[in-house]
Amino acid sequence: MPPTGPDSSRLQLRLELRGITKVYPAVVANSGIDLRVAPGEIHAVVGENGAGKSTLMKVIYGMVRPDAGEMLWNGREVHIGSPADAQRLGIGMVFQHFALFDTLTVAENIALALPEKLSLETISGRIVALAQRYCLPLDPARRIYSMSVGERQRVEIIRALLQNPGLLIMDEPTSVLTPQAVDTLFGTLRSLAADGCSILYISHKLDEIRALCSSATILRGGKVTGTCDPRGESAASMARMMIGADIQPIRAVRSAATGAERLVVRNLTLAAADPFGTDLDTVSFSVAGGEILGIAGVSGNGQQELLAALSGETPLADAQGVLVDGKPTGRLDPRQRRAIGLCSVPEDRLGRGAVPSLALADNALLTDNRQSSVRAGFIRFDVVKAFTERCIAEFGVRGGGPDTPAGSLSGGNLQKFIVGREILQNPGVLVIAQPTWGVDVGAAVTIREALLDLRARGCAILVISEELDELTEIADRIAVIAGGRLSPAMSRATFDRDAIGLAMSGEWTAATQTQGADHVHSA
Amino acid sequence: MSQFLPILFATLIAGTPLVYAALGELITERAGVLNMGVEGMMVTGAVVAFAVALTTGNLWLGVLAAMVAAGILSLLFSVLAITFRANQVAVGLAMTIFGTSLGSYLGKPFVGMALVLDASQAAGGFAQLPLVGPLFSAIHPLVWLSWGLFAAVWFFLSRTRAGLALRAVGESPTSAHAIGYPVVRIRYLATLFGGAMAGVAGAYMSTVYASLWTEGLIAGRGWIAVALVVFATWRPERCFAGAYLFGGATMAQLFAQSAGIGVPSELMSALPYLATIVVLVLISRDAALMRLSVPASLGKPFDPQG
Amino acid sequence: MSIRLEARPQPSRTMIWLSPLLAIGLTCCVAMVIFAVAGLNPLSALATFIFTPVTDLYGLGELLIKAAPLVLIAIGLSIGFRAGVWNVGGEGQLIVGVIFGGWLALNYGPDGGPWVLPAMVVGGAIGGALWAAIPALLRTQFNANEILTSLMLNYVAQLWLGYLIFGPWRDPAGFNFPQSEPLAPAALFPTLIEGTRANASILLALVAVGLGWALMSRSFVGFQLKITGLSHGAARYAGFSPNRAVWIGLVAGGLAAGIAGVGEIAGPLGQIFPTASPGYGYAAIIVAFLGRLNPIGILFSGLLMSLLYLSGDVAQMSLGLPSSITGLFQGTLLFFLLTADVLIHYRLRSSTVATGAIAGSAK
User: Fold this and answer.
1) Please, are residues B154 and B236 in contact by the beta-carbon 8 Å criterion?
2) For residue A29, what are the domain limits?
3) Are residues A281 and A398 in the same domain?
4) Does B175 touch chain C (CB under 8 A)?
5) pLDDT tens per residue, range B143-159
6) pTM
7) Which of A279, A451, C206, C260 is most buried (most C-beta within 10 Å)?
């Protein structure tokens, strides 16, 4: 790590950005951004989804060329044209969606990133040494596909560290960690900073930033709206800078009269079709009408497989595995399930929930095609258009009309459209994954309120989410999925972050069983 | 036993073009690029090699010319499929149609001509070597060069850093780009290599295997080579073995005649195509094996600014 | 200053229809270069090439009679291509249609009867459909790539027809030429326009255009196929069966190709030859792409491709160039089409802005 002392930190910044601007055809991602990072400083870049944080990091790391502005590294102006240039300077990056090769080993992955041609044995030795120093245990001979998400992040970090960075960029690192693992990560980052490495910490989680970072630059709509020391700020004041207004708290959750069980899953065991996926193991739960059951968990523990089994994308061998209003639906496809009243919203908007190149009207027809939109095999375009317009109006979708391609909408607007499309089909059961991932705060509020409205109308809702805060806000009960198994559910009154954190690592006991009405069938 | 040696030689000769074409396509696909234009590149290579060898009397000039011609076609393919990110299957099909029709057009004047090259001239100085010299005369240099190619490809992929980088690009170009590798350049090089090898394969067909040019010369061998890569689960050693298996299948008619089996000649000629279908089915049905073997980014365009 | 490709936020609607015209224009340029190299006047040679075939009624009839199978097959193939199903086996499916229809013609034609011709059409359709069903089955059951399997079957079908023509179906009065007996009148399509060879197969092609349009633009099945071709994930999420798309995509092409095959032997050929098709199965792929996978577009591109075939003969007779020039132009056309298609999703931008702003020394 480059040496630093009290004098040099006052004289020279490790990284300085002046007036960085990046314009895309549809949006101004960054506009005149200034950033100052001192040596050994943990500097947060704060902003909600869509504020321009990712683009800015891509500019710094050389993956994107800015249209205007300058970058200074240790006081000298530089031109970073590619990730190779950035690495040569000493900028390392730990990606949100890891840049790893599944079929290769840890050592091979890291070897690919190192400029010198060292033998795999030498590299393995360095990996183990560094891993011990910073509490990131790793086995160099393991293949990536066999590792959990948290372990893969360790590989990313070690790879970045082995290149002796002067600046380490961490992009939303805690979304894949249990609360306990987050504490360990913070310890690692603090030791790194103490050794002189600067850290750019990208996040929208204000509590974490206030615990870890000594300075912050806040972005909104592609511009810098302020800089501060998070340790001296409250979450509310930072949130105000982040979204430009006070966060409207979601209106209080009233207890709805819970009716009969509408969604029942019994001993769902499913081998993953993908050899890199997670097998589901005797998952059992039920959701009553007028209730929201949240499933928390770190990504990669079976959430995708569970959603596919419920939505019908993966048919089950046992028709009784999933019951909707008492009817066995295990072998039905998604269209048949919607006909019975089970609608779903997947986690990827653009690859599954909608087709980006098609108009919103076509995307509406994607799932709403049973009663009136299709007659005698032919499409009734007027009915489809009317439905689309209604969806746009009722859910506040901005950015286009029925003929606008879905891909040109912002993440939040498209998500509102997709959620709205399913809700307008009056489902008895709604299964939804990552409802507000990558979505701006305004849209997130709209979506969560729409879910609560649906709940009030007696629908049974299952929310699978990696954002624990979201679930604590809207769920009546929370269960945790880990390694393909589901923990017993905790009721609202007994939410305990520590217990949930432990459950995410796979540890739960009967002590977390709920009091009162318990809808979980034991295996 | 007296049947054995001629059969062995016939299999060697028939398998060689598949060795070149399949190993070339293997490298291309390991980088994540699906080149369906191999058939067209082989046809063009065959015509160009024949024409040049005929006019200059030099086999190696013909082979070189074939590599250049097929290389140009694969360059066109690369520009469309890699830089402009067009659908790789569509561009590959277009390349086959274009390459075949180009070869057919260029080759019209040469139909019916015979190419006579002194075999020992082809072996060149190698035939003078002390112990192994006679071997080089008996087996054409292009054949044992193909063995060298196999060894080189195997070593490259499994033992070199560059080979590791190629495999990484094929698995995840975005990750490779993120850690600083020139993905586009690597893919171009892999595709050009594959094209050049298809050119050699075509050249071999028209100058050694048949010593003539006719429209039906390549007869789908380029496609068989593409299927071979799948059958070999993208491993060079299986590609090599499979090439000879299929080479043998193309010789089935000869074997049947010598064994006195009275089956319609068309059925024997259909054997390599039917065999290709059968082995494709056998390999593809194992979804888990395919998932672990297919280069994950095969056929998908890569956007450096994405 | 460098020219870069910038992704368009939306695919350009104008370019979708401009690109085929651009490709045609570029191919004409290449044609003129070839003419010039051959020592001809480029413009007048091009004019001869394009206009001579259709100057009289007979020529127009030839144009239609060649366009009919191209349009028919291309419509069938385009249904599959829209769904992401790559049916490259049109040639083989046409040949098996010839085999099935030909068998009916040779065995029942001489006895006559109005039912012979419709039976041949149905037989050809079944033959083509069965030949396409093989890759469909292999793909849905065993996940075998349909491009490779359907292509291999092309060669097999060719050999099968060859075996029949050189063997059991050989014309006893044909001086050992590879051909079948001439088909009986009951097995031939009636002529539509006097003085030409244009026959009722043209009507079949027009019906196909209508059916294709209704299916792809108006029906829900067509919508499902479109989604399957655009996004497998979205199709699964919507509950649209990918297997059904594979079957429909392949069998549609097989049906069309089989009928087109019968149209050839019951039409202009009147006999069965081993080369029953001058590569229509492959040319139809080009027709489908050039027509933007749209039935109306295919109608026009089919006529254009048919003109190219006729022009090839003209080139041989009037310009002294080999008729294989047709194939070369077809291939060139497809190649330029794919190049021009790039402009649908990208536009060319010269960037002078960025590089100036980031000044300073490198590392």
Assistant:
1) yes
2) 6-90+164-243
3) yes
4) no
5) 989 999 999 999 999 98
6) 0.87
7) C260
